[in-house]
Amino acid sequence: MTTTRSGPTLAVIGGGVIGGICALAAADAGWRVHVYDDGPTTRASEVAGGMLGTLGEGHPGEDDLFALSVESTALWPSWIERLGDAGIATAADSLFVATTAADGEYLRQMAQFVWAQQIPQDRLTPMRAAQIRAVEPALSTRVNSGFLASGEGALDNRRLLAALHAAHGEAGVHWHRMRIDDVADVRADQVLVAAGMGTPALLPDISLVPAKGEILRLHRNRYSVGVPQRVIRARVEGHNVYLVPRADGVVVGATQYEPFADDDRAPQAGGVADLLADATEIMPGLRTYDLAEAGAGIRPCSADALPIIERVDDRTLVAAGHGRNGIVLAPVTAARVVALLGA
């Protein structure tokens, strides 16, 4: 049942996960919301693994980002409930695994000096090779050590987008399939720009750096081994690969490098080859899966890796620069945007 509202109006430019969750949070807070979106082609959230954990995407020195991720991850269960689940959640835990002694030492260093500062010790369990294969038997015998991180789950990014869109309809959020080239052209009491890499064109004072990332979607067939029950985050001879469960298979990711141009969203053969090689090294049975999609997106990154969530002027707000952490940081972004709207 669609809700009719009579409060102030908010225009949200951008219909990805960030714009979508902010629009729904504002509608829940009593705003009349209109979303302006020019389609899925440029959305970073269309090409994503959907991990909700705080550990795998953080690096030493990013303490503020870690803390923000912890805060936001804690908000996700209520949002999943708000969206009616709809098969959004695909895993509850993550396995961090290593294939060499050097990889194992890297994980131990991260666990001792970085991860232990962010999550309680009882959520991080060291595991030997036999223990790892006991819970995920399809993993390679090359896996020699790792950690089980409970609560480091994942969502299906595309089901999440669909669920947000459905919730918008029920909450009275109006969608407009159109491109906005000037914030001044939008009629609303307040305007939120959440347009990813399209944000600087609308707000020239907002500086973002594009980072291209490739992912693969592999579908299980009748000859395939089962889908992992957990997110698998592997360290393979010094570099990283993740396998994220989906109802029909796994998402494999992800590369990250500077694109040739802002619209460079074609997956490159080298990136696809590297991902496939690392994924099948960790889970050999993936060789029997069907390669359903090779995709690439442009992540909008800020200079300090922290999202830009602020008021630009009396009428305009921005939520951008989430980089590789858009989905995990979506709830805390929505909370801050609603707070700014009320200020």
From TrEMBL:
Pfam family, one: DAO
EC number(s) on file: 1.4.3.19
Keyword annotations from UniProtKB, A to Z: Oxidoreductase, Thiamine biosynthesis
Gene3D superfamilies linked: D-Amino Acid Oxidase, subunit A, domain 2, FAD/NAD(P)-binding domain
Signal sequence annotation: none
Limits of the FAD dependent oxidoreductase domain: 10-339
GO CC, alphabetical: cytoplasm
UniProt pathway: Cofactor biosynthesis; thiamine diphosphate biosynthesis
Catalytic reaction annotation: glycine + O2 + H2O = glyoxylate + H2O2 + NH4(+)
InterPro entries xrefs: FAD-dep_OxRdtase, FAD/NAD-bd_sf, Gly_oxidase_ThiO
GO biological process: thiamine biosynthetic process; thiamine diphosphate biosynthetic process
Keyword Oxidoreductase among UniProt keywords: yes
UniProt key word Protease: no
Sample GO molecular function, one term: flavin adenine dinucleotide binding
Domain of life from the UniProt record: Bacteria
Protein name: glycine oxidase
